[in-house]
Structures are given as C-alpha cells and as structure tokens.
Design a protein that fits this description.
The chain is of the alpha/beta class and 257 residues long. It is built from seven helices and seven strands, in the order E-H-E-H-E-H-E-H-E-H-E-H-H-E.
C-alpha cells in the first residue's frame, strides 16, 4: 500500500474531538487539525476558553469548530460530549484524549482520597469512557483513530507525581487493550510527551527549567512539536500502526537519571 505524501495533512471533512483542547498541547493540535481541513471539537471544563478558540479557528482558518464544556472526570459528561459530537457532525473520526491534571501535594501522606480519585478520574476513567463510546461508534462506521496523550511520568515518575504517573501508566495499558478490542477498524495509539513549554511551565521553578539543559536535545519542547505525531496517528500515514506508544521527550527517558 502506497501512502501519498498528502496523507499526513489532508484531513478535509474529518471530525476530530480533543479533550483539554483549549490550551497547551490540545490547543496546538486543534489549530493544526483545522489547518489540515478537519472540523474540530474543542472540549474542556472552561467553555469560554473553548468558545474563544473555536471562534478564532472559524474566523481565521475558515473551518467549523465546536466548543463543548466537559469535565472528563465525570462519566455522564463524557457521555454528553459523545452525544453532542454525534448530534452536531454525525460522526467522529479521531478522538484525542488529551485532558489531564497533576495537582501539587506536600508529601505522599498528604495525598487525600479526594485528590487521588480526582487525578485517576480525569487521567484514566474519562479516557476509558470516551474511548469506549467513540470507539464503538467508529467500529460501526468502519474506521477511526483514538490518540491517548500520556506522559513520561508513566515510565519514569517522580515522588511529586505518583498518582498522575500511575494514571498515565494505566492510560498506556488502555491503549493496548483498546487497540485489540476495536481492531481492525479503529487504530489506537499513544503519545508520551516529556517536558513541553506550555503555559503550565510558567509555574516551574528555575531549577526545573535549568534541568532541561541536561536533556540530549538540551531544551524543553515547544507545543507545536507535538503536532507531527498527532497528525501521523490520526491520518492514513499510520495505517499499519496500532497499540503503539511514541515517546516525544527530548531524550529524557534515554538520559541518565
């Protein structure tokens, strides 16, 4: 099978749903998919942020974009998002489980049951429910792609992100199980980002920013550098790829600890 070069960038008429889509990596992916001709559904807990980005995409790129309020940690809101996408577009070709959270805590004994559950719900339970709902629809339609956004914390966590790392490791496990459950119609893959310089990095300490110089590539990633992997997994360019985890971390995991 010969994959034409435009397979990476011609997504005309596709519908892409992105959770956590109004900021950071999600925003960069939303803009990229819109530039490639896809309708984008931008979902997050703050609808006004989603609406602002959707309006920007419609005005400046000329692509229909939908803003959707959704707290992915809530099962019923995941179902509501699925229903909204289907009612609006009649389908979803690509689901990107990008929403995530990793609250700060003092020590491991400071982690409350509420905090632990919140982290697991947003990073793991929500993607499970969304993948089940959208994946089943994709199977019925005969094709589709699910992209999970994990973290290097899944493979190399530190004590300050124990619940988060466990949840992201679980997300990588879900990637493998869903890739088998919905094959061959649906491809399910995972991107494992390292330190990206999104707005969240503004809160990082000077020491953390300085540590990025020790990476093989000597810096943190720019948000736009996630785009190539997302387009690859979403498009026919990855037609023989499923159950994969792609590390985009500047070499962090390959670096000495």
């Amino acid at each position: 099978m010969v994959i034409p070069e435009e397979a990476f960038t011609d997504l005309d008429g596709k519908v892409v749903t992105i959770t956590g889509g109004s900021r950071g990596l999600g925003k960069e992916m939303a803009l990229a998919f819109a530039r490639c001709g896809a309708h984008v559904v931008i979902a997050s807990r703050k609808k006004e942020n989603c609406e602002a980005l959707a309006a920007d995409i419609t005005e400046n790129i000329g692509i229909e974009a939908l803003a959707a309020e959704c707290h992915v940690g809530e099962w019923d809101q995941c179902d509501a998002l699925f229903n909204t996408v289907l009612q609006t577009f009649g389908k979803c070709d690509v689901l990107i489980n990008n929403a995530g959270m990793s609250p700060l805590y003092g020590s491991l004994t400071d982690v409350s049951q509420e905090l632990f559950d919140k982290v697991l719900n947003v990073n793991l339970r929500g993607p499970f429910r969304l993948s089940a709902k959208f994946g089943e629809q994709m199977v019925q339609d005969g094709s589709g792609a699910i992209i999970n956004i994990s973290s290097v914390a899944a493979a190399q966590p530190n004590p300050n992100e124990a619940p988060y790392g466990a949840a992201k490791a679980g997300l990588q496990s879900l990637t493998k199980s869903f890739s088998r459950a919905y094959a061959p119609q649906v491809r399910v893959n995972c991107i494992m980002p390292g330190p990206f310089l999104t707005d969240i990095s503004d809160a990082w300490s000077e020491e953390t920013h300085k540590s990025l110089e020790a990476l093989p590539l000597g810096r943190g990633g720019q948000p736009s550098e996630i785009v190539g992997a997302a387009l690859y997994f979403a498009s026919n360019a990855s037609s023989f790829t499923t159950g994969a985890v792609l590390k985009i971390d500047g070499g962090l995991i390959a670096s000495p600890s």
